[in-house]
Amino acid sequence: MDRCKMNSHTPLVLLLLGLLFLHQTLFATIALTEEERSYIATRGPVRSISIDGSGPLQYTDSQGQMRGIAFQILDEISNRTGLSFATTMYGQIVQVGAAFTDGSDMIFGLPEQYARKGYVLSIPMVRSETIFFANTSIQPQELQGKRFAAVYKSVLPEGVSEDQARYYESLQEAILAVNSGSADYGYGNPFSLAFYTLQYGLRNIYTIPQGREERAYRILFLKDDPLLVSIINKALASFSPQELQNMILEATSQVERIITPAMIMDTYGGEIFTLTLVIILILVAALTHILFSRSKLDLEQRKFKAIAEVSNEYLFEYEAVRKHLILYERFRTLFTSPSSLEKAKETLATHLATSEEGSLLALELPDGTTGYFKVSATKVLVRKRNAQLWVGKLQDISKETERLTYLENLAQLDGLTGLLNAATTRRIIETRLEQKHLEEMDACILFDIDDFKAVNDKLGHLAGDKVLQALATIMLENPCSSQDILGRIGGDEFCAYLVGIPSQEAALHYCTTLLEAVRTTLHTEGVTISLGFAMVVGPQTFEKLYTQVDQAMYRAKENGKDRIEVASQT
Fold first, then answer.
1. CATH says 412-566 is which class?
2. Tens digits of residue pLDDT in 191-200
3. φ/ψ bin of 361: left (φ > 0), alpha (ψ from -120 to 50), beta (otherwise)
């Protein structure tokens, strides 16, 4: 009877043993509380983000897969706790800022030096020392004034000024910049330096293990979630040094070698030289064959004329000595009147006599518009007549030219405001300064928004962009003349260069108009501007002029803002 009872409970006993085994498997090395286990069972994936380009800590491989030590650690935390992670990798550090407002739970693989104050950090995921690396042309004892490769938003080391710093989006970009010579030296972790040296076959970098500082890579928690913090810290604390070392070795061994021209030459230099020599010999043989084939020109010319009748291009012949031009029949479909055809003939003949092969030609069309054509022609020696004959074609590229002009204009404008961008503004002003007559009077005006950071902080960056657009509209709607050079030359800094104004009073009137228009238009946002301006009378350089006006603008800020200051003439 008792045996029967035991046998009837056997399935239940086995089920309990199985659950106990599963429990021990999941929580064998981590002492989680019942509250933490319940939290894991009920919550969804932990939204986690990081920054790309920090191999082997975290990076994206050539197949677009997210890899690295940090991902191995997250996988193992998932195995040990039951948490799941939804990970996203950003290519630029500035994109990570969105995580603070988009509902993400944490940022992982973050050096503690980059962490924002007021947020909880985990215990270290990985620790490393910071080592010195430099371009092979740089001596480590001669770093004064050298360019320092810094990661965007990182803290500059002691002794490195902002003037020396060159900022990059990731440690990968910083290392490659030093190797290429765009920067001179930097500091980084030994894992990443070894990883990218192997991946790219870097030759122009050396390292010195100075042990400048210890760098700990942690998880920054974006929400007030003490249970999540506790679970992840317990999981991180459960990793043994040997386990972390194995993960580092495994991640480093997965490096993908990038094939570079230097590597190709090292491996196949001999073969490439041989192939190049063979190609040259083939080209020489082909050229010899062409020289002996000129006797067939008459036949080829007949073929050329036959093709002309069915082609969409405009073919011609031109004899240079007699300056005799023959236009094929298809020209008449484009130039429909005798006068337009004759004018096109004269323009093309002049162009052929003075221009090079492959140049562009503008022709006036019968409807009054201008057509743009690419001129392709081949010079042929006619031995019997001792003359030079050109055979060629005009290819209509009017649409491509219009598109190129549009793109060139677009490249000169600031995308947010529609004003000239900084580079174009400076170039046009410099040209004006070079060409301005001594008796002409110009004015240069700089202004920016008072406390613009407060506007962004209070109203948001989208509203800040709208304020910048409104300022551009005010400038465009209140011109001094059609020759005004109006540009956005910084974040909230604008320039107006007034060409050929009658007096300083006219420049002051323009500044006052801007000041009042901003007060009226943007009073709801509480926006004001501070202006500085200088008159441009004699010879002047852009740098000197900009310095004078910039100093005047900052005096306006120091004297109470929302005002105008005239630059001191030196």
1. alpha beta
2. 888 888 888 8
3. beta
